[in-house]
């Protein structure tokens, strides 16, 4: 069973918030990058932030972790917004 309407709304709000305030998510990206791609490192921070906030909220509301279908739906919804996330990262970090 995929994410329900309320969970989808929560995920959308979390992604929108992270995109609205990129400096909050990416504050440590330049200082903590260990030599790899700055964009990849920053993308990992974004996905980690979104996942952490969503999973924590889901666990509090449902007293359980996501099942396989819900997790697949979660990653599908993240993948649908990848280009938007990457554009925000590049814009914030002033990269081409």
How would you characterize the overall build of this protein?
- The chain has 96 residues and is mainly alpha-helical.
- Helix content is 77%, strand content 0%.
- It is built from six helices and no strands.
- Helix 1 packs antiparallel against helix 4 and helix 4 packs across helix 6.
- The protein is elongated and about 40 Å long.
- The mean pLDDT is 90.
Average residue-wise pLDDT: 90
* Low-confidence parts: none
What does the main sheet amount to? none
**What general form does the structure show?**
elongated
Q: What distance separates the N and C termini?
A: 39 Å
- Based on helices, strands and strand pairing, what is the structural class? mainly alpha
Order of helices and strands: HHHHHH
Radius of gyration: 14 Å
Percent helix, as a range, is: over 70%
Query: Which percent band covers the strand fraction?
Result: under 5%
The number of distinct helices, counting runs of at least 4 residues, comes to 6
Number of extended strands: 0
Indicate the multimeric state.
single chain
